[in-house]
Amino acid sequence: MNPWDTPPFSAHAAPVLWTPNASTGERFVAIVLVRYDAPVVGEVAAPVTFSPRQLKAMIGSRRASSALGILHHVSEFMRDQILSGSALDNVIAPFDGFAIGKLMRVRGYSSKQVVDTAIRTLSAFGSRESYDEDEETPQRNSVPTRQFLRSLRSVFAREDEERRGRFNKNVTVGGSAPMTIDYAHEKHLVQVTSLPQSEPHLIALQKEAESKILELDITATLLRSDRAPTHSSLLINTASLERADSREARKVANELLERLRFMSEQKSMTLLQARDPFEAAKILDQFEREEGLQYA
Protein backbone atom coordinates (compact mmCIF):
# COMPACT_ATOMS: atom_id res chain seq x y z
CA MET A 1 0.00 0.00 0.00
CA ASN A 2 1.31 3.43 -0.92
CA PRO A 3 1.66 5.50 2.30
CA TRP A 4 0.57 8.62 0.39
CA ASP A 5 -2.83 7.22 -0.47
CA THR A 6 -4.53 7.34 2.91
CA PRO A 7 -3.87 9.51 5.99
CA PRO A 8 -2.11 7.29 8.56
CA PHE A 9 -4.16 8.37 11.57
CA SER A 10 -7.76 7.18 11.92
CA ALA A 11 -10.14 7.22 14.85
CA HIS A 12 -13.75 7.04 15.96
CA ALA A 13 -15.12 10.16 17.61
CA ALA A 14 -18.28 10.99 19.53
CA PRO A 15 -19.60 14.31 20.84
CA VAL A 16 -20.53 14.75 24.49
CA LEU A 17 -23.68 16.90 24.57
CA TRP A 18 -24.02 19.24 27.55
CA THR A 19 -27.25 20.85 28.78
CA PRO A 20 -26.13 23.67 31.10
CA ASN A 21 -29.69 24.84 31.73
CA ALA A 22 -32.39 22.18 32.00
CA SER A 23 -35.17 24.76 31.82
CA THR A 24 -34.20 25.80 28.27
CA GLY A 25 -33.09 22.37 27.10
CA GLU A 26 -30.40 23.91 24.89
CA ARG A 27 -27.49 21.51 24.27
CA PHE A 28 -23.89 22.11 23.22
CA VAL A 29 -21.01 19.84 22.23
CA ALA A 30 -18.75 20.38 25.24
CA ILE A 31 -16.32 17.45 24.86
CA VAL A 32 -15.27 15.23 21.97
CA LEU A 33 -14.28 11.63 22.71
CA VAL A 34 -11.66 10.19 20.34
CA ARG A 35 -10.40 6.61 20.22
CA TYR A 36 -7.69 5.86 17.69
CA ASP A 37 -7.76 2.84 15.38
CA ALA A 38 -4.41 3.63 13.72
CA PRO A 39 -1.48 3.89 13.86
CA VAL A 40 -1.72 2.88 17.56
CA VAL A 41 -4.95 1.12 18.47
CA GLY A 42 -6.58 2.22 21.71
CA GLU A 43 -5.07 5.67 22.24
CA VAL A 44 -7.67 8.08 23.62
CA ALA A 45 -8.25 11.82 23.72
CA ALA A 46 -11.14 13.73 25.28
CA PRO A 47 -10.62 17.46 24.64
CA VAL A 48 -12.98 20.10 26.00
CA THR A 49 -14.23 22.12 23.04
CA PHE A 50 -14.84 25.40 24.89
CA SER A 51 -12.19 27.96 25.75
CA PRO A 52 -12.55 30.04 28.96
CA ARG A 53 -13.35 33.08 26.81
CA GLN A 54 -16.22 31.28 25.08
CA LEU A 55 -17.70 30.09 28.39
CA LYS A 56 -17.54 33.60 29.83
CA ALA A 57 -19.44 34.92 26.84
CA MET A 58 -22.08 32.19 27.20
CA ILE A 59 -22.73 31.99 30.94
CA GLY A 60 -20.86 34.91 32.49
CA SER A 61 -17.51 35.22 34.26
CA ARG A 62 -18.81 34.07 37.64
CA ARG A 63 -20.04 30.68 36.41
CA ALA A 64 -17.44 30.11 33.67
CA SER A 65 -14.58 29.08 35.97
CA SER A 66 -16.57 26.43 37.82
CA ALA A 67 -18.18 25.20 34.59
CA LEU A 68 -14.77 24.73 32.98
CA GLY A 69 -13.61 22.73 36.02
CA ILE A 70 -16.68 20.50 35.72
CA LEU A 71 -16.09 19.93 32.00
CA HIS A 72 -12.47 18.91 32.57
CA HIS A 73 -13.57 16.54 35.34
CA VAL A 74 -16.16 14.95 33.05
CA SER A 75 -13.54 14.69 30.30
CA GLU A 76 -11.09 12.83 32.54
CA PHE A 77 -13.85 10.62 33.97
CA MET A 78 -14.98 9.52 30.49
CA ARG A 79 -11.43 9.14 29.18
CA ASP A 80 -10.61 6.73 32.03
CA GLN A 81 -13.64 4.60 31.13
CA ILE A 82 -12.59 4.34 27.49
CA LEU A 83 -9.05 3.40 28.50
CA SER A 84 -10.57 0.69 30.71
CA GLY A 85 -12.33 -0.82 27.70
CA SER A 86 -15.73 0.90 27.49
CA ALA A 87 -17.10 1.68 24.04
CA LEU A 88 -17.44 5.37 23.18
CA ASP A 89 -21.22 5.23 23.15
CA ASN A 90 -21.37 3.35 26.47
CA VAL A 91 -19.45 5.73 28.73
CA ILE A 92 -21.35 7.58 31.45
CA ALA A 93 -20.91 11.01 32.99
CA PRO A 94 -20.42 11.69 36.72
CA PHE A 95 -23.17 14.35 36.61
CA ASP A 96 -26.59 14.81 35.03
CA GLY A 97 -26.86 16.98 31.93
CA PHE A 98 -24.41 15.08 29.72
CA ALA A 99 -25.19 12.63 26.90
CA ILE A 100 -23.22 10.88 24.14
CA GLY A 101 -24.04 11.78 20.54
CA LYS A 102 -23.62 9.86 17.29
CA LEU A 103 -20.23 8.32 16.44
CA MET A 104 -18.27 9.31 13.35
CA ARG A 105 -15.03 8.25 11.64
CA VAL A 106 -12.15 10.74 11.40
CA ARG A 107 -8.85 10.59 9.49
CA GLY A 108 -5.81 12.83 9.44
CA TYR A 109 -2.04 13.13 9.01
CA SER A 110 -1.32 13.60 12.73
CA SER A 111 -3.07 13.02 16.06
CA LYS A 112 -3.59 16.77 16.44
CA GLN A 113 -5.20 16.99 13.02
CA VAL A 114 -7.57 14.14 13.91
CA VAL A 115 -8.64 15.88 17.11
CA ASP A 116 -8.91 19.24 15.37
CA THR A 117 -11.07 17.73 12.61
CA ALA A 118 -13.32 16.01 15.16
CA ILE A 119 -13.81 19.22 17.14
CA ARG A 120 -14.52 21.37 14.09
CA THR A 121 -16.87 18.78 12.60
CA LEU A 122 -18.86 17.97 15.73
CA SER A 123 -18.94 21.32 17.52
CA ALA A 124 -20.13 24.68 16.23
CA PHE A 125 -18.13 26.41 18.97
CA GLY A 126 -14.99 24.32 19.15
CA SER A 127 -11.69 25.40 17.67
CA ARG A 128 -8.05 24.46 17.84
CA GLU A 129 -7.55 27.24 20.39
CA SER A 130 -9.57 25.28 22.93
CA TYR A 131 -7.67 22.04 22.43
CA ASP A 132 -5.62 22.25 25.58
CA GLU A 133 -2.41 20.52 24.55
CA ASP A 134 0.95 21.79 23.38
CA GLU A 135 0.61 23.26 19.90
CA GLU A 136 2.93 22.26 17.15
CA THR A 137 5.52 24.80 16.10
CA PRO A 138 3.97 26.94 13.38
CA GLN A 139 4.93 25.50 10.01
CA ARG A 140 5.00 26.99 6.52
CA ASN A 141 3.64 23.71 5.11
CA SER A 142 0.60 21.65 6.01
CA VAL A 143 1.24 18.15 7.35
CA PRO A 144 0.58 16.30 4.03
CA THR A 145 2.68 18.80 2.08
CA ARG A 146 5.51 18.68 4.59
CA GLN A 147 5.59 14.88 4.49
CA PHE A 148 5.35 14.87 0.70
CA LEU A 149 8.24 17.32 0.35
CA ARG A 150 10.40 15.43 2.81
CA SER A 151 10.02 12.20 0.88
CA LEU A 152 10.36 13.94 -2.48
CA ARG A 153 13.71 15.39 -1.42
CA SER A 154 14.84 11.98 -0.17
CA VAL A 155 13.81 10.20 -3.40
CA PHE A 156 15.17 12.86 -5.74
CA ALA A 157 18.40 13.80 -3.95
CA ARG A 158 19.42 10.54 -2.25
CA GLU A 159 23.05 11.23 -1.27
CA ASP A 160 23.49 14.21 -3.60
CA GLU A 161 23.98 17.27 -1.38
CA GLU A 162 23.75 19.67 -4.31
CA ARG A 163 20.29 18.34 -5.16
CA ARG A 164 19.21 18.51 -1.52
CA GLY A 165 20.22 22.15 -1.44
CA ARG A 166 17.67 23.02 -4.12
CA PHE A 167 14.79 22.53 -1.70
CA ASN A 168 13.28 25.14 0.62
CA LYS A 169 15.39 27.92 -0.84
CA ASN A 170 15.19 31.57 0.14
CA VAL A 171 15.38 33.54 -3.08
CA THR A 172 16.34 37.22 -2.91
CA VAL A 173 16.35 39.52 -5.92
CA GLY A 174 18.07 42.86 -5.54
CA GLY A 175 17.07 44.39 -2.24
CA SER A 176 13.73 42.60 -2.00
CA ALA A 177 12.65 40.52 0.97
CA PRO A 178 13.51 36.81 0.58
CA MET A 179 10.80 34.50 -0.73
CA THR A 180 10.78 30.81 0.15
CA ILE A 181 10.52 28.47 -2.83
CA ASP A 182 10.07 24.72 -2.31
CA TYR A 183 12.39 23.79 -5.21
CA ALA A 184 14.62 26.17 -7.17
CA HIS A 185 17.25 25.23 -9.74
CA GLU A 186 18.41 27.10 -12.84
CA LYS A 187 15.28 28.62 -14.39
CA HIS A 188 12.84 26.34 -12.58
CA LEU A 189 10.88 27.57 -9.56
CA VAL A 190 8.46 25.03 -8.07
CA GLN A 191 5.99 25.40 -5.23
CA VAL A 192 4.35 22.29 -3.75
CA THR A 193 0.92 21.96 -2.18
CA SER A 194 -1.66 19.22 -1.50
CA LEU A 195 -5.34 18.56 -2.11
CA PRO A 196 -7.68 18.06 0.87
CA GLN A 197 -9.05 14.66 1.77
CA SER A 198 -12.14 16.10 3.50
CA GLU A 199 -14.04 19.36 3.97
CA PRO A 200 -12.36 20.30 7.30
CA HIS A 201 -8.93 20.32 5.61
CA LEU A 202 -10.02 22.52 2.68
CA ILE A 203 -9.51 25.97 4.19
CA ALA A 204 -6.00 25.32 5.49
CA LEU A 205 -4.81 23.77 2.22
CA GLN A 206 -6.41 26.48 0.11
CA LYS A 207 -4.61 29.13 2.18
CA GLU A 208 -1.34 27.22 1.83
CA ALA A 209 -1.68 26.99 -1.95
CA GLU A 210 -2.68 30.63 -2.43
CA SER A 211 0.18 31.83 -0.23
CA LYS A 212 2.66 29.79 -2.25
CA ILE A 213 1.27 31.05 -5.54
CA LEU A 214 1.75 34.61 -4.30
CA GLU A 215 5.37 33.92 -3.28
CA LEU A 216 6.04 32.23 -6.60
CA ASP A 217 4.46 35.04 -8.61
CA ILE A 218 6.42 37.76 -6.79
CA THR A 219 9.72 35.89 -7.14
CA ALA A 220 9.20 35.15 -10.84
CA THR A 221 8.20 38.76 -11.57
CA LEU A 222 11.31 40.12 -9.84
CA LEU A 223 13.59 37.68 -11.66
CA ARG A 224 12.05 38.52 -15.02
CA SER A 225 12.50 42.21 -14.32
CA ASP A 226 16.21 41.39 -14.06
CA ARG A 227 15.88 39.54 -17.39
CA ALA A 228 16.59 36.19 -15.76
CA PRO A 229 15.03 33.15 -17.51
CA THR A 230 12.28 31.82 -15.25
CA HIS A 231 9.79 28.96 -15.43
CA SER A 232 7.22 28.84 -12.61
CA SER A 233 5.36 25.65 -11.68
CA LEU A 234 2.82 24.65 -9.05
CA LEU A 235 3.20 20.96 -8.18
CA ILE A 236 0.13 19.42 -6.56
CA ASN A 237 0.16 16.29 -4.42
CA THR A 238 -3.03 14.55 -5.64
CA ALA A 239 -2.90 11.47 -3.40
CA SER A 240 -6.18 12.36 -1.66
CA LEU A 241 -7.97 12.69 -5.01
CA GLU A 242 -6.63 9.40 -6.33
CA ARG A 243 -7.84 7.50 -3.27
CA ALA A 244 -10.94 9.48 -2.28
CA ASP A 245 -13.29 7.09 -0.48
CA SER A 246 -16.51 9.06 -1.04
CA ARG A 247 -18.15 11.29 -3.61
CA GLU A 248 -17.96 14.24 -1.22
CA ALA A 249 -14.22 13.78 -0.64
CA ARG A 250 -13.60 13.67 -4.39
CA LYS A 251 -15.75 16.77 -4.90
CA VAL A 252 -13.81 18.77 -2.27
CA ALA A 253 -10.45 17.80 -3.78
CA ASN A 254 -11.59 18.53 -7.35
CA GLU A 255 -12.96 21.94 -6.40
CA LEU A 256 -9.61 23.06 -5.03
CA LEU A 257 -7.77 21.52 -7.99
CA GLU A 258 -9.90 23.51 -10.44
CA ARG A 259 -9.41 26.70 -8.43
CA LEU A 260 -5.64 26.22 -8.48
CA ARG A 261 -5.73 25.41 -12.19
CA PHE A 262 -7.51 28.71 -12.86
CA MET A 263 -5.12 30.70 -10.64
CA SER A 264 -2.07 29.09 -12.27
CA GLU A 265 -3.34 30.00 -15.73
CA GLN A 266 -3.88 33.62 -14.67
CA LYS A 267 -0.30 33.81 -13.38
CA SER A 268 1.23 31.95 -16.36
CA MET A 269 2.35 29.07 -14.14
CA THR A 270 2.54 25.43 -15.17
CA LEU A 271 0.29 23.21 -13.08
CA LEU A 272 1.82 19.80 -12.38
CA GLN A 273 0.25 16.80 -10.64
CA ALA A 274 1.86 13.86 -8.83
CA ARG A 275 0.19 11.00 -6.99
CA ASP A 276 3.26 10.34 -4.85
CA PRO A 277 6.84 11.59 -4.31
CA PHE A 278 8.17 9.14 -6.91
CA GLU A 279 6.11 10.73 -9.69
CA ALA A 280 7.18 14.16 -8.46
CA ALA A 281 10.85 13.12 -8.52
CA LYS A 282 10.45 12.06 -12.16
CA ILE A 283 9.17 15.55 -12.96
CA LEU A 284 12.23 17.16 -11.36
CA ASP A 285 14.49 14.69 -13.20
CA GLN A 286 12.85 15.74 -16.46
CA PHE A 287 13.52 19.39 -15.65
CA GLU A 288 17.19 18.56 -15.12
CA ARG A 289 17.43 16.61 -18.38
CA GLU A 290 15.90 19.54 -20.27
CA GLU A 291 18.41 21.90 -18.69
CA GLY A 292 21.24 19.55 -19.69
CA LEU A 293 20.08 19.49 -23.31
CA GLN A 294 19.77 23.26 -23.33
CA TYR A 295 23.37 23.76 -22.25
CA ALA A 296 24.83 20.85 -24.22
The third-level CATH topology of the largest domain is Rossmann fold
Counted up, domains total: 2
Largest sheet: 5 strands, antiparallel
Distance between the termini: 40 Å
Shape descriptor reads elongated
Order of helices and strands: EEEHHEEHHHEEEHEHHEH
Q: Report the structural category.
A: alpha+beta
Class of the largest domain, according to the CATH hierarchy? Alpha Beta
Flag low-confidence runs.
125-138
Beta-strand content estimate: 15-25%
List the helices and strands and how they pair.
Elements lengths: L8 E10 L9 E11 L5 E2 L6 H8 L1 H23 L14 E3 L3 E5 L2 H12 L20 H15 L3 H4 L2 E5 L7 E7 L2 E7 L4 H27 L5 E7 L1 H4 L4 H20 L3 E5 L2 H19 L1
Parallel strand pairs: 8-9, 9-10
Antiparallel strand pairs: 1-2, 1-4, 1-5, 2-3, 6-7, 7-8
Structure, described:
The chain has helices at 52-59, 61-83, 111-122, 143-157, 161-164, 199-225, 239-242, 247-266, 277-295; strands spanning 9-18, 28-38, 44-45, 98-100, 104-108, 167-171, 179-185, 188-194, 231-237, 270-274. It folds into two domains: 9-130, no CATH class; 143-295, 3-Layer(aba) Sandwich (Rossmann fold), CATH 3.40.50. The protein is built from nine helices and ten strands. Strands 1, 2, 3, 4 and 5 form a five-stranded antiparallel sheet that branches. A five-stranded mixed sheet has the order 6-7-8-9-10, sandwiched between helices. The longest helix is centred in the C-terminal third of the chain and has 27 residues, at 199-225. It is 45% helix and 21% strand. It is of the alpha+beta class and 296 residues long. Mean pLDDT is 84; it is low at 125-138.
